[in-house]
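Q: I'm a student working through a structural biology exercise. My instructor gave each of us a protein and asked us to get a predicted structure, then write a short paragraph describing it. Mine is Toll-like receptor 2. I'm not confident about reading structure output yet, so if you can add a plain explanation after the tokens, that would really help. Here is the sequence I was given:
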Amino acid sequence: MSRVLWTLWVLGAVTNLSKEEAPDQSSSLSCDPTGVCDGRSRSLNSMPSGLTAAVRSLDLSNNEITYIGNSDLRDCVNLKALRLESNGINTIEEESFLSLWSLEHLDLSYNLLSNLSSSWFRPLSSLKFLNLLGNPYKSLGETPLFSQLTNLRILKVGNIYSFTEIQDKDFAGLTFLEELEIDASNLQRYEPKSLKSIQNISYLALRMKQPVLLVEIFVDLSSSLKHLELRDTHLDTFHFSEASINETHTLVKKWTFRNVKVTDRSFTGVVRLLNYVSGVLEVEFEDCTLYGLGDFDIPDVDKIKNIGQIETLTVRRLHIPHFYSFYDMSSIYSLTEDVKRITVENSKVFLVPCLLSQHLKSLEYLDLSENLMVEEYLKNSACEDAWPSLQTLVLRQNHLASLERTGETLLTLKNLTNIDISKNSFHSMPETCQWPEKMKYLNLSSTRIHSVTGCIPKTLEILDVSNNNLNLFSLNLPQLKELYISRNKLMTLPDASLLPMLLVLKISRNAITTFSKEQLDSFHTLKTLEAGGNNFICSCEFLSFTQEQQALAKVLIDWPANYLCDSPSHVRGQQVQDVRLSVSECHRTALVSGMCCALFLLILLTEVLCHRFHGLWYMRMMWAWLQAKRKPRKAPSRDVCYDAFVSYSEHDSYWVENLLVQKLEHFNPPFKLCLHKRDFIPGKWIIDNIIDSIEKSRKTIFVLSENFVKSEWCKYELDFSHFRLFDENSDAAILILLEPIEKKAIPQRFCKLRKIMNTKTYLEWPTDDAQQEGFWLNLRTAIKS
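A: Happy to help. First, here is the predicted structure for Toll-like receptor 2. I'll explain a few features afterward.
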């Protein structure tokens, strides 16, 4: 019994553990408010649960889903797109898509569906895109799969290995397709007219290794197909027989050969095929390989007429293993006389034989980009009578090194108007050059030039010198309408007077820091300006101009996203239209002027107040006080020279000199007085004289009167000594009041004097002669005390 319980417990624990480890399928989806749900690469092993009608798009690609049941998508009635590619789906139940009548995009590619059922697609009446590539089915089923898909526009079927058969019923019901892709790499059987049921196909991409069934397929499509692309085909054994084609009139306008292998002999078969069907205007070879030496054996070349209708020939990345043993292709020269556009790109072309150039009589456009052309061989290619109708020549990214020689070489091309020689390494530009006289367009971008000179033809209407090292553009080009000069080192816009007809200017990603309304207005005909990506200094003037000019947005095609501030530092990286600077930054001159005016007014006001309230007097008194503080508090007794220092007003000098001096200095014993007229040392600063005299006197006599308090002398010199004297709390001061003085008459700055007059006794000069003797007695007693 215990063993049974133990076993049940273990099973329960394992079950719970598996439930905990199993991911929540619905939570593995991320859906936005519009109903677009992303479940890519979430390691899902089954369809998510809980899908509702709110889901509009469901992407479950790159998971591990193997099975789709009838109920998994039942509620997704509004689903428009379902992507299930790159899973391991091997089973889809018959009614899995029954409710998806709104579905327009279905991708089931690269799964494990070995059998396809028409019941899957029957409800999908709105389907426009269906991808079934990469599934291991051998055929498209026993019954027509797509007969109900009347709105289908893009269909992709087949696989690399197992898809071996195309049946006549496979495409029944499809009348119009914009795009059909068939991977028939291992196709072994094709029932005649299997593709003929499709009445109109804009584009067919057919991947097949062997060309055995190519002509048969082409016959069925020739009257309904516009563009045929043949991929990954080995045409080395291809042979075309005219007897295999009954209908020569086709709708095919373009053939593309992509990653196709061709030999000299099979190339002849391709030429015969293109000749036998009429209407082909464009032939394209991309990433193809030519195993041969150019020894094309084309019998009855004169009978080949329809191939002459081809107007455009494009060759990109053509690989020729025996390239340096290649012939001159003279056998096909006559086939090229009516071609108007030729592109041979990245195919190691270093020479176009002169004879071939002369046969290209109708050629208007020639692109030899990314090849090995140099001036010497270009001269042979552009020989006399070569390319007589050529208007556009593209020699981008070759090995040209001299502008002067390149221009001279092309002088034979009388009708040449457009030249693209970008991505060549010219480095420098001569002062003068010769060019075809009808030149209108010149592309010199990415050629490492440092300056532009008179070598540029005056007849140009379009000039491209972008991505170089230019720091100045000062050419006079009176007919120029478009100038492309981005990714250089220009610091300002070109001079508009040199470009009077300019309509388009693209000058982005230079070193421009600003431009003004005046500069733009000088370009009278300018319609388009692209100047983003520069290091703009967002000054107040620049911001005002760009933000207030509403019409500027119509001219600046990259406004506002590419216009960012580089300085000031606090707005770096912000869009110009969003930056707002402070008043102090925008009106600095006015602010400084205002501050200077305010400072001047403050100084002026200070002077007025100082004069009005005797501020200078207070300052000078403070200075004197500080000077006095640094001296000893009291002079030594041996330095005392006077009994008293007399401080008085000049208006009271008569009383002092004729009465005070006579009564004191002629008394027995005499008193020695210090008078400023008599005892001050000439040449010595008056303040020092005053302070020294007070310090060398035992007493200081102040002769107070109305004249004293009004005297400039007292106001600005003598009262400095009063300040120090009273500050020492000494009794050395003797006050003589010559005449009654009201306290209101004493200025506020004589605060110490006012205080002493309130706290100390002073001597009053009597007007009565009988009382004067008592006055002198009291004075002499005060001096001796």
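A: Here are two points you could use in your paragraph. Residues 588-612 form the longest helix (25 residues). Confidence is low (pLDDT under 50) at residues 1-26. It's a good idea to check both against the output above yourself.
Q: Great, thank you!
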